[in-house]
Structure formats: structure tokens, C-alpha cells
Amino acid sequence: MPNKLPEKMNDPSGGANQSRVRDYNERLVLSLVRRHGSLAKSQIARRSGLSAQTVSVIMRSLESDGLLLRGEPQRGQVGQPSIPMSLNPNGVFSIGLKIGRRSADLVLVDFLGQQLGSISKVFAYPIPSEIIIFVETGIATLREKLLPYQQKRIAGLGVSIPSQLWNWAEKIGAPQDVMEVWKDTDFQSKLEAISNLPVNMQNDATAACGAELAFGHGKELADFVYFFIGTFIGGGIVLNHGLYSGRTGNAGAIGPMPVMNSDGKATTLIDHASIYTLEMSFKAKGFVLSHQWSEPEDWHSLGPLLDEWIEDTARHLAWAIVASSSVIDFQAAVIDGAFPSNIRQRIVDAIRVEIGELDTRGISDLSILEGIVGRGARALGGASLPLFSLYLLDQNVLFKGL
Q1: Which residues are within 8 A (CB) of 326 and not within 5 positions of it... i.e. 6 or more apart?
Q2: pLDDT of residue 285
Q3: Which of 196, 238, 302, 350 could share a disulfide with 314, CB 3.0–4.6 Å?
Q4: Rounded Cα–Cα distance for residues 124 and 126 (Å)
Q5: If DSSP codes are grouped into helix, strand and coil, which group holds residue 336?
């Protein structure tokens, strides 16, 4: 790899014009209300550092736009009663699309992330033309669940998709020429044309991390490293209550993280903590793990091979968590994946044991937590993308367009 300086980037220390500051402050208020459920004007002013007058102006504007709901006055203190404000579930709707290596999901959610409808499709491998048809018919079906005025409040379509999907053809048993179509297709433009909606796209694991931030542990954690175990493992990073995507949007791509195999040879985390590894173990014994996609809650009969996979996954995830925590002082590591909740719990319990066997001197204690969102995190993460893009706090919002 050539030793050269990275490309020059916009200086994040630059100033923000008045419209950016106003946009940021509105997002800040909405994000604080989301995180705490409901807040009064005085509480928002105290938590945000904004003046009471500024907060009043912002809240009136957001209420007028239908984004905030006024609660019942809270009495019992000196002075005027406080009026808590909360997000209006009907204020915004969003559609999320997860494109996986084995399945695709469409979900419709309201402003609180509550799922109003979903459609799924299972396949041996993703074919772009078939995904387009699935999305077009699926969005039409989901729109019917909303009243006409609600349909006008759909913020957009968020797409959660593995990075460079075409590079995984061999591992998922797909024809290389079929997968290469993904490389040559302007998928975002096609989706915008068939949906008539703005389209945001993000790496699937990073999007899942965004779902955990918006609708899960992000309500109480300011900083955490996130691991999502799907066909292949991926992850994300949350810093100061914001999704950190990095210079190229690939921050937290923990799959390529170096680890060691049982022979002491260097390999990567993706080869030890992915459902693909479990599939290969079953194939080696002459079995096919096909029911996992059609009956996602039925893992009880997988037996010793599942036990071995959980042990191996936990051991390598423990190394990855300690390595990550030696770089950034995370509050917690959050583990989720495309499997039943009892499997997630077993993995988390095993990770805690494995970390106890490692030398963690110099690393602050951190919690190992189960994800709250669950196996649908990638689709819900996709649905969160338009919300972050338009309404929620984005650490880069002050500097967009610089």
C-alpha cells in the first residue's frame, strides 16, 4: 500500500452559519425529547445550554409542524406549571429496507420507531432486479396502512445493505456475474424512481447500530461499540450520543479485525463470529441450516454444533471487545444478531466469562449488554436513516456543505 497522505477533508473546526445553528438546535431538542421520552421547556434549556426563550421558540415551531405533542401541565412546584413535550408518533413516518445476503425486509415505522407493518423475502442470494420488484410492490402495500395525510409525512426510504455486496459471491454460493450487477447498478437512483421518496443508504451493520442508538440502549449510553452477528458480523460505533461513521462511512467495520484461530494463525473476526461459520459447520456434517431463515425462532434443535459455535464466537468477540476498548473508552459493548433472543443471551453470558480470562489491566471496566432492538435491527436501522438525515441530532449537521 503506498505511503501517502490522505485526501484533504473539510475542516470540522469551521464555523456554522445561522441556518445550520437553527437546524442543529431543532435536532438537538428533538433528540433530547426522544432520549428522555418527554421534557418540559426548563428541562430542555438546562440539558441543552440554550436559553429559555430560544427553547420556547423552537418548541412552538416543532409543535406547529406536528413533530411535538403537548402533555398535561405538571403542577406542584413554585411558579407556572411545567408542560412536558413528547414526540408525535404521527409526526413522521419512515420506510426501512434491509438487503441481506439471504433475505430482504421492508418495514414501516412511525416517529417513535414503532413498527406499523413489515414484509420479508427469503432467497439463496440477492438479485438486484428481484429486489427492485420486491421493494416496489412492498412499499405500495405498506403505504396502504397509512391515511392519505400520513402518507404525505413519509420522510424517506432508508436502505441497509452490506458494503461491496458483490465481493461475497463465493462465500454465499452466488454466481459472480449475477453479483457483479450490484457493482454496476445505481441502486439508489432506481429506488428513488420507484418509490418517489428520498433514499438514504448505509452499511447494514452501521445502520443496525443506528437503530440501537435511536430506539435501544442509546437512550442511556453515550458511548458504545456495537456488534451485529448476521450472515457475516459487522458493527458500529456511538460516541457522545452520535453515530460515528468515520472518514469514509466505514468506521466500526469490525469484521476484518485480526484475531487468531485455534492453530495460532492470524485470521479475521468475520471467520469466527458469523452465522456463515455455523452454516459451514453444518454443511461439513452433511446438514443444511435452511430453517434458520424461514423459522428464525427455532434454534433449539441445533445441538452440539451450536454450542461449539457460541463458544468460538464468544471467545473471539471477547478479544475484539478488549481490543476496541483499548482504543476508545467505551461505556459498553452491545451484542445483537439475526438469531433468537435466548441465543443472544447465551453469547453475551459466554463473552463475560471469556473477558474474565483476559488480561484487561489498563482498560476501564465496561458492560457487555444484549441489544434491545433484536434481529430486525438492520431493517429498523434503515428506517432510522431518513429520521437522522432530517430530524435527529447528527454530529456532522453543522458542517454539511462546508
Answers
A1: 362, 363
A2: 82
A3: 350
A4: 7
A5: strand
* Model pLDDT, residue 11: 39
Ordered structural domains, the chain, with CATH: 18-87 (1.10.10.10), 93-203+380-399 (3.30.420.40), 217-372 (3.30.420.40)
Quick check: helix, strand or coil at residue 42? helix
Rounded Cα distance between 225 and 368, Å, is 10
- Cell numbers representing residue 312 in the block: 468460538
CA dist 213 and 242 (Å) reads 8
Three cell numbers written together for 190 = 432506481
Cα-flanking dihedrals φ and ψ of residue 243, to 5°?
Answer: -75, 120
Give the Å distances, CA to CA, from 76 to 45, 80, 81, 84: 20, 9, 7, 14
DSSP per residue, 106-170:
EEEEETT--EEEEEEEE-SS--HHHHHHHHHHHHHHHHTTS-HHHHTTEEEEEEEE-TTGGGGHH
Residue 287 has what pLDDT? 76
User: What's the Cα-to-Cα distance from 86 to each of 53, 186, 204, rounded to whole Å?
Assistant: 19, 39, 29
The residues facing 115 across adjacent strands are: 109
Q: What is the model's pTM? A: 0.83
Start-to-end C-alpha separation, the chain: 30
